[in-house]
Amino acid sequence: MDKLKSVLSGEEARRDDRTVLETVNEASTLGWGTRLKGFVACFVIGGACTVLGVCMLFLPRIGLTLFIVFYTFGNVCALCSTMFLMGPVKQLKRMCDKTRALATTIMITCLVLTLCAAFWWKNFGLALLFCILQILSFSWYSLSYIPCVREAILKMVSMCLR
């Protein structure tokens, strides 16, 4: 019956005109309380996975692999947690903003390369290097949301290098 109502009222035609982003945005209309709960849950899971990964680092033989998996999954969860606050479409637009595009690209590339180095190439030294780059790029990306902090850090580093 709902389908018939939507066809007769013309809503069906409007639904076909929507883009994928509009469909995702429409499907993600959560209340503020639900968004906050989702953010906290995802952020806590991400933090717990990161800490668990660091603890797993000290296990013999499989510790480094578990560290890489948990640490990378923790970073992905922490990144996804902000999608609850802003919404997925707005978050993706902000991630691709010109001030964050390079940091976002490096961060996602390092996430993928960390897993490739650990499981496909079996080079754990390279995987650790990519984990360090994950930390740096994720930090630089996160700092881009605080006004003027990245510029202040760049000025401070340039003063220290003189």
Written description of the protein model:
This protein has 162 residues and is mainly alpha-helical. Helices cover 81% and strands 0% of the residues. It is built from nine helices and no strands. It has helices at 2-9, 11-16, 20-27, 32-56, 63-86, 88-95, 101-120, 124-143, 149-161. α4 (32-56) runs antiparallel to α5, α5 (63-86) runs antiparallel to α7 and α5 packs parallel to α8 (124-143). It starts with a helix and ends with a helix. The relative contact order is 0.09. The mean pLDDT is 84.
Low-confidence stretches: none
β-strand percent reads under 5%
- What is the number of helices? 9
Instruction: Characterize the biggest β-sheet.
Output: none
Structural class: mainly alpha
> What percent of residues adopt helix (DSSP H or I)?
over 70%
- As a whole number of angstroms, the C-alpha radius of gyration is 21 Å
Mean pLDDT across residues: 84
Compressed to H and E, one letter per element, the order equals: HHHHHHHHH
Total beta-strand segments: 0
Could you say which overall geometry the principal axes of the C-alpha atoms support? globular
**First CA to last CA: what distance?**
73 Å
